[in-house]
Predict the 3D structure of the following.
Amino acid sequence: MWRSVTPRYHCRLVSPTFRGSICLPPKCQHQNEGRRSYSSDISGTATDHSVVKTNSVLRRALLYLPGNNKKMAKKAAGLNVDCVCLDLEDAVSLNRKEEARASITEILAELDFGDSDVAVRINPLMTELAEADIKALYSAPTLPKSLVIPKVETSIQMEWLFDMVDKCMKDDLIDNMNVLIQVESPLGLINLKDICRLDMDAVTESLQLNLEGLIFGGDDFAASLGATRSEAASELFFARQSVVCHAKAFGLQAIDLVNIHYHDTEFLERESIEGAHMGYTGKQIIHPNQVDIVQAAFSPSKASIDFALALEHAFEVHQNAGHGAFTFRDKMIDMPTMLQCQTVLNLARRTGMIAPKEIRVPDPAPKDAGSGDVPP
């Protein structure tokens, strides 16, 4: 069964795969005012979105907690995890949703999570549950830093979200809220390009929301495929890699699937490293024991940092000498290799593993700068 929603959304179709009643979108109160600016056009010109926005909050690990469990929230506040996500969706039963909304309001006002990003996962969009979640959050004295949006399948759902937030936000609210959307079905994957582009589209005039990441919901995706989950996750490879590609195309973070075997630390480490090698910037977790393993897996190793620092210096020397590609430690180095090197160093600097790069006068070109390593 499909439902057509017409107000201001060009009569597109929405799949009603969500619990709760469908809500019609409210009229936007801030239409055509101060749309967020982007550094490039999206009309088809070549752009460089290959790296995540440098001002994005680190989310190497995103820890889910039931929104109605204050005890867990107090423990999470001392974990030094990159992102704590207070859940109003799957972790909360239907008859305790209102209790969880009240609990989250108190948690946000009372607990200090330090440098951790504090997010709230609301219920699926265009439902009465999601509308109640948004109204509760925006009427609270303290807002979360980020919103996690589950089961996103079409751009019309995101338009509904933008309009609902514009309707509910306070007039004196200035700071933007970050948004991470979950890809959990084949329909969501097929429509992901349009969903990501919508954040840059003047059709949606939200002054409040800033799309910052994509989250791959592996278990829900497998269920929607009718696939059997395996340790190797081979049944999800195409979808898993596609989410990364879309994220990097739009300069977004990519957060990998949950590992539910939280006592199997070796499995968790293997899967985390695999996700990092695929291009993911972080991973969803469900237990405090997973924090350190996952955040280490999505941080550069000392060996990779040392190599990248040496290569960065070699690149600068050869650039000053007028050379493009060059040989370094028996490897041919060109710009793609340097971009990988910069990814390592940028993350190392953001996590405090090395000091920020100093601005200095370039080294003079060596007298005999050829194709070998940097001279001593």
Q: What stands out?
A: The CA atoms of residues 122 and 133 lie 6 Å apart. Residues 302-320 form the longest helix (19 residues).
